[in-house]
Amino acid sequence: MQLGKDIAAVITGGASGLGAATARALAGRGVKVGLLDVNEAGGTALAKELGGTFAKCDVTSEADVDAALAAVRKAHGQERILVNCAGIAIGQRTARKGKEGAPPVPHDLASFARVISINLIGSFLMMAKSSAGMLTLDPIGPDGERGVMINTSSVAAEDGQIGQVAYAASKGGVKSMVLPVARDLAQSGIRVCAILPGLFHTPMFDGLPEDARKALAASVPFPSRLGSATE
Fold first, then answer.
1. Which among 22, 4, 6 is positioned nearest to 14, based on CA atoms?
2. Which CATH number is associated with domain 1-86?
3. Which residue of 34, 107, 138, 183 could cross-link 72, Cys pair, CB 3.0 to 4.6 Å?
4. C-alpha of 154 from chain center
């Protein structure tokens, strides 16, 4: 797809981290960017900087997604690009010993479900809603393309570490989901793919417990540091 001023994009998790870096890269190519995030202050500021549009959105809420897409489409038209970057991570073992003789503690179910809901179900919901909109567009370019949807999985989908059971499950789900979605939409000219980033220094990473951050950062062989979002 030829990027330019006639193309609109929607980026979830667009207020910070990989989402913000993606928004800057697309805006730098002339693309009209719509940012969806729960971080209203960060999203509003970045949208102003890039000449884009921000809509507050919880990707687990169908009502929020519908309203946010309606807002950015009103400003920019139907998106041909969707980039799913919204996500959270937690560090928690499947079970752990209790402190000071207390009984063992299983993984908190609500926390597990929240990670799955945001990372996996949120990605699915955005793809379903965005692709339905893309189907209304005329195909463009020599290949007759209507749009492209890029999902953020993770290296944890294939190489989950201690304490990443919820995160790895959610990102493994994203990775597995992409192929059937791509097959569903290929004949309509919509491409679907996933990227599997390694360890990047983002607000999501900073939200992990300190011991988890240190262990994960120490596992990077070369270059022996966390990646930056612009990379």
1. 22
2. 3.40.50.720
3. 34
4. 10
Residue of 167, 171, 177, 212 marked active site: 167
Q: For 201-221, write each residue's pLDDT tens digit.
A: 676 666 666 666 666 666 666
Six token digits for residue 121: 């179900």
Q: Among 190, 162, 160, which Cα is nearest to 175's? A: 160
Q: How remote is the C-alpha of 89 from its chain's centroid?
A: 12
Q: What is the pLDDT of residues 146-199, one digit of tens each?
A: 999 999 999 999 999 999 999 999 999 999 999 999 999 999 999 999 998 766
- 6-57 pLDDT tens trace: 999 999 999 999 999 999 999 999 999 999 999 999 999 999 999 999 999 9
Distance of CA 1 to the CA centre of its chain: 21
Token pair in block for residue 179: 């192929």
Residue type, 51: G
167 tagged catalytic: yes
